[in-house]
Amino acid sequence: MAQLPEALIPSPGGRGLATDDREDLARRVRTAWDLFVALAEPLDLDAVTRARGLTVREVLTPLGAWSDNRPLPQLLDEARRGVVGDHDQGALVDHVREAHRDASRDDVIAALRRQRDEMSAFLASPEADADGLLPVASMLGTLPVLTFLHASTYPLSTSALDLEQAGAEVPDELLRLGLVGVLDTIGALASRQGLMTSLTVRTPGLVAGVGAMPRDWRTSELPDDAEPDGPRIDGTVRLLLDVTAGRADVARAVAGKELAFHDVPGLLALAPLIEQVPGIPGRAALVAGIRAVQGVSSLLKVFGLRR
């Protein structure tokens, strides 16, 4: 059985930041949305981004609060009714892009602000205490509501990087928030799968990790000089986000010593997560691939919340 680093051992009933520090989770979500809205506001919606040639409009529209984009009241209603399992986010994204392709610039920006404000209001309300740990369906399967909302920081950060080509100025803080958000989600997935494992990322300016065991997980930022035992990935925040989003050449980054992996056998303990994430290759392909350096890319696809 894996030995978790002491700083990442979850408490009984731990649900990452949703139980360890809900106020910090709320602050992180609000800050990420504030930063993202601010960088999106001056952009030309018709400019082309790095994201498969999508325009700024096509990147931003699915992130906004629209009545047909699984609004927060609908999400909460589903959680209260016990709707769990897999949610087809890809189909929803395609629908929202098409339905709102002629929306005005003001409407697109207003939808982003509305999403930010509705999430922030919920996170600051007594409802978050009452319903925040309820399980609900997501594109990654069942997650607690608060973890689901915290996970939104990740697509904000990767979308921000995609928008740089269109002139977006991306704050480092937004990228750090997104990386911690995806770590928290990995903890939820590993715990749901009944794994005993950990993962730490070490970057200039951020060392953070997650430790999981069956039913519980803990997500923590660690001291800047921390070098915890167990599976660890070293690189810049920007590179790690690009890797998880499929935007970086992992083999080249490893060869150039921009990316380093520690305890690869421990990283393989995360392989069962693949079976829980729609669209990810099977474990056999991962195990075969990781024998070559390129296999690390397959492993890291586990972490991507595909849009």
Give the CA-CA distance, first to last residue: 34 Å
CATH class of the largest domain: Mainly Alpha
Mean pLDDT: 88
The profile of the biggest β sheet is: 5 strands, mixed
Integer-rounded radius of gyration: 18 Å
CATH architectural group of the largest domain = Up-down Bundle
Sum up the structure in keywords:
307 residues, Four Helix Bundle (Hemerythrin (Met), subunit A), 5-stranded mixed β-sheet, 47% helix, 10% strand
Concise account of the structure shown:
This protein is an alpha+beta fold and 307 residues long.
Set down the secondary structure blueprint.
Elements (H helix, E strand, L loop, with lengths): L16 H4 L1 H19 L15 H5 L11 H9 L8 H11 L5 H19 L2 H6 L3 E2 L6 E2 H7 L1 H11 L8 H21 L4 E7 L2 E8 L2 E7 L9 E3 L2 H8 L5 H6 L4 E3 L1 H5 L14 H8 L4 H6 L7
Parallel strand pairs: 3-6
Antiparallel strand pairs: 1-2, 3-4, 4-5, 6-7
Commentary on this structure:
The structure is a single chain. The chain is α+β, with helices and mostly antiparallel strands. The protein folds into two domains: 6-12 and 186-303, SCP2 sterol-binding domain (Nonspecific Lipid-transfer Protein, Chain A), CATH 3.30.1050; 18-180, dinb family like domain (Four Helix Bundle (Hemerythrin (Met), subunit A), Up-down Bundle). Helix content is 47%, strand content 10%. It contains 15 helices and seven strands. Strands 5-4-3-6-7 form a five-stranded mixed β-sheet. The chain has a two-stranded antiparallel sheet with strand order 1-2. The longest helix has 21 residues, at 172-192. The two termini are 34 Å apart. Mean pLDDT is 88; it is low at 278-295 and 302-307.
